[in-house]
Amino acid sequence: MAFDIDHFRVKPDEQLDLSELDPGDTPFWDADHKKEGRERLLELNDRLEELQELLWANGQERVLVILQAMDAGGKDGTIRHVFDGVNPSGVRVASFKRPSSRELAHDYLWRVHMEVPGDGELTIFNRSHYEDVLVVRVEGLVPEKRWEKRYDHIVAFEQMLADEGTTIVKLFLHISKAEQRERLQARLDEPDKNWKFDPGDLVTRVKWDDYQEAFQDALSRTSTASAPWYVIPADRKWYRNLAISEILIQTLEALDMSYPAPAEGLDEITIPD
Ligand code: ATP
Ligand code: MG
Fold first, then answer.
1. Are the beta carbons of 204 and 71 closer than 8 angstroms?
2. Is the pLDDT of residue 85 over 90?
3. What is the CATH number of the domain that holds 180?
């Protein structure tokens, strides 16, 4: 069955209820066909590679992919598996960690604007300015009267980027609380995953419901025609990769890009011995 990516899209003005969306769901794919799903991903990897090459050669479009999730939600795995094979020259990952003192001395979009893609580039934000209405809101890092205004800023900022030629795709990796427990437990149990265990993630886990509510508000208030949010059922990693690849490929295909016209007279050129 063909993937209808609109199914995952948060409609503008929709009040999203994350508790109604099953993180284990596999729309447009049979949940038992995991092996086939993995094989399909390899084909999609090839197609994404071609489209990214075209984006780079065409040099007129800019693509921004924003990844947000709870801890252990699969942002890193997504980057590794979905972008497997793309040409690193035109793809960049920008990770947004706790702001430095220099960053905190500026407005919250200052560090973000600097990282947006230029012509021909595809940039992946691993976390983003959305942290400024997520962790900042839940942990009360700035007063409500300040973060409350940020939804409107963000919509305006992203609209500006879109108006100036940036295609924006925002992906929320939706995992269940039970799946997060398993993944955090694996980080404790498996020696080669120990390095990923961050005790701070447990502090965040305790506030699961507050974070879900903050995500719900952020997604509902900032999903626009120019910068849509997609909610990805992400408990099954193979399915998550498949759904995200489909969304990116269909979005890039819609740009209808072409290779630059060859220089005149190429057919008359002979390469000298
Ligand atoms: P992993 O999933 O591998 O742990 P990560 O994205 O969680 O990767 P970390 O270095 O563990 O990376 O965490 C980054 C931390 O920075 C997160 O806890 C995030 O909430 C926090 N952070 C990011 N942006 C901001 C911000 N603007 N204000 C406060 N905290 C922020
Ligand atoms: Mg972390």
1. yes
2. no
3. 3.40.50.300
